[in-house]
Amino acid sequence: VADLWLVYSKPVPANSRELWTLFLQCSCITVVIGGLFHNWMFASLEYSWHLSVAMAVSLSLLLLLTIFLVHPARCVFSMIMPTLGTKQGRKLLLSTCIMIVVVNVTPNIIRNIKAILQVIKCICKNSSESLLNSTALLDTASWEFGDAIQETVHSINIHRPMNGHFRFSLLKNGSLIYQQMHLAGEKIGKDFLAVEVLVKDSVRVGNKLVAGFSMLYLCFESTWYLKNYLTNLRFDNFYITKKLERLAVDRNAAHLLVGPSKNLIRPTGLKLSREEVIQCLVQAMLLTVALMLMLVVAAMDHLAFSVADTAVRKAAQFSVVPVALSIKYSVSAGAKIGILPPLLKLLQLPDKELPLQDFERSYQHYLTFSSAHCRINPPTPPNPSVLLVVGLLFCILYANAFLETYAHRLCRKIAGSFFESWEEKRALYLYKKLSRKYKEG
């Protein structure tokens, strides 16, 4: 591995064997990167398959020519890998988490809300239909009660301008109500569909922009690091490297490294400075805020499913409500209706008395609130695999927050292996700086 890295980091291959080795290395790297890039564009960013393949092939060919022919570009590309362990890598992973949540959780919430609205629509439709049908009960009762009154006065031969019946104007056809309810349901469904499409499109476009910006910034950050490494001797130069130790031993100044400054650390050690620890904690807190927001969305998904499932089950269990209409008309025994004699004489009718008859009847009706004919989509339970994937990604993000410092150190080691002569100048600069501080102290 050391020999392969030596060939890979050399500015110019020494012979044809090293040249072919470098070409094979670059070819393998570009094939792997092209495959990952295609999968990322097609599966995560949701580009078309043909566009993803075309972009992946173009990127692979361009990357192969660049890293094979240009030594600094090969160094920049090598530093991009550990740079993924820094803030830019966290942005890519975080955008992937957001995309997963929006694509999988948000539509499920909307589907469950639609199920709740379908239950409400079904109850309103059936209850209104049953209520409209109950008005026919009043018509029947009033007609029979009118018949009873007619029978009571049937023996009197007088002119009756009305037939003694109550008349109701009933709404026999509920098509207007059903039409209005159908239009309202259609409008609500279209509104929800528009919101779902808008959210998906917005997040998809935003995710693509963030991904594109992050990839460009990864290249920029690696290039910026290499530029500062090669032009500024003080930049990121506070490590006790092997070259610095060898230089101190050769000049009999090993005591300079015995009690180093608190800001001087070994690049291969696990020690973190106070500033590095604070930065890691701040990044972890920001990730916790993002995690809480995603957990709120997941909780909304579970809440919507719970409410929808309860509504569907309770709607199916609704029993019919019996409605009874009782009419009771009674007169005490022996009571009679007497017609006044003057009125009888005027109408030339015989004097008579009419007995009153009791009237008592009950009418039954049932109000229904649900029906098997209602079209209700079953609620969709949350997908547990989504939470599992998001949880694993956040574990990587938290680990990334604390490993960012070591990723920076790895970037420095890569740059030093590509430009060994410049690394020696940086070690000499740091040695002189420590010597000067030691003499002044």
TrEMBL record:
<protein>
    <submittedName>
        <fullName>OCSTP protein</fullName>
    </submittedName>
</protein>
<keyword id="KW-0472">Membrane</keyword>
<dbReference type="GO" id="GO:0016020">
    <property type="term" value="C:membrane"/>
</dbReference>
<feature type="transmembrane region" description="Helical">
    <location>
        <begin position="20"/>
        <end position="37"/>
    </location>
</feature>
<feature type="transmembrane region" description="Helical">
    <location>
        <begin position="280"/>
        <end position="300"/>
    </location>
</feature>
<feature type="transmembrane region" description="Helical">
    <location>
        <begin position="92"/>
        <end position="110"/>
    </location>
</feature>
<keyword id="KW-0812">Transmembrane</keyword>
<feature type="domain" description="Dendritic cell-specific transmembrane protein-like">
    <location>
        <begin position="235"/>
        <end position="431"/>
    </location>
</feature>
<feature type="transmembrane region" description="Helical">
    <location>
        <begin position="385"/>
        <end position="403"/>
    </location>
</feature>
<keyword id="KW-1133">Transmembrane helix</keyword>
<feature type="transmembrane region" description="Helical">
    <location>
        <begin position="49"/>
        <end position="72"/>
    </location>
</feature>
<dbReference type="InterPro" id="IPR012858">
    <property type="entry name" value="DC_STAMP-like"/>
</dbReference>
<dbReference type="InterPro" id="IPR051856">
    <property type="entry name" value="CSR-E3_Ligase_Protein"/>
</dbReference>
<dbReference type="Pfam" id="PF07782">
    <property type="entry name" value="DC_STAMP"/>
</dbReference>
